[in-house]
Amino acid sequence: MFDRLQKKWKVKGFQLALILCTFALGGSATGWVGKKIMNLLAIEQDWLWAILYIILITILWPMMVLLISIPFGQFRFFSVYIKKLGSKMGIIKLNPEGNLSHKITHIAIFASGAGSNAQKIIAHFAGSRSVKISLIVCNKPGAGILQIAEKEGIPALLIEKDAFFRGSSLIPELQAASIDLIVLAGFLWKIPPALIKAFPRKIVNIHPALLPAYGGKGMYGRFVHQAVVDNKEKESGITIHYVDELYDHGQIIFQARCPVLPDDTAETLAARVLQLEHRHFPLVVDELTRQNTV
Hints:
This protein folds into two domains: 2-88, no CATH class; 105-290, Rossmann fold, CATH 3.40.50.170. A seven-stranded mixed beta sheet has the order 3-2-1-4-5-6-7, covered by helices on one side. By secondary structure, the protein is α/β, with parallel strands linked by helices. It has eleven helices and seven strands.
């Protein structure tokens, strides 16, 4: 019997002895404390006493065993053992790694170009147990974002224009990936109403200007920065906002600003604004995953 226990629990003989001592003392302590508590309750009905006692020792036993396991140096073993026991009883849920299961926020990143913002977001959540970049959606064959997806081992979906603007065609793909939040990171197509309806306040976009100025159809990339420079603005920046049915119109979540210098060109301003995007976009997405809105 001892050999079977050693193999089952993957322990050596001395540790097995410590584990068995913990079980024995934990059981005895549970019974002793349980009876003391029941005596204080002074319940006269035998059937009620028995029911409450069983419930009480069921609650007490894990606590007493964990407490006694500490001086025996077996706390780690019993914390895992009790979690697995609770999982078998249906009291708690474990993930495939044997850890306590918890909600994972699944993100889909939509991008059309090189994917530098997407790369920053992916890097930010690397190793996270609560957030997973589960899908990359791209509308441009050969775009750099597809290479990033391949390198990072993230499933990628190349979409076709007519099917996308029918709106509902992409929804089953997103649902199959359990997507909770859609992040537009340089995605140049307007999101169709059906997709917005399916993911209300769960689609966010980043715009390289201070909305509501310099937004709308055709205002993306270099066109935005050139307009800012041509109008001799004193500052520009980024806007992260929820997506609605209009271009660059949804509720603003976050803005960050930078100066527009007298000798700026569209290219130099774009580089400065991109630094803001890389610095703030992953942090804002992270904050959204922590809120109840996701």
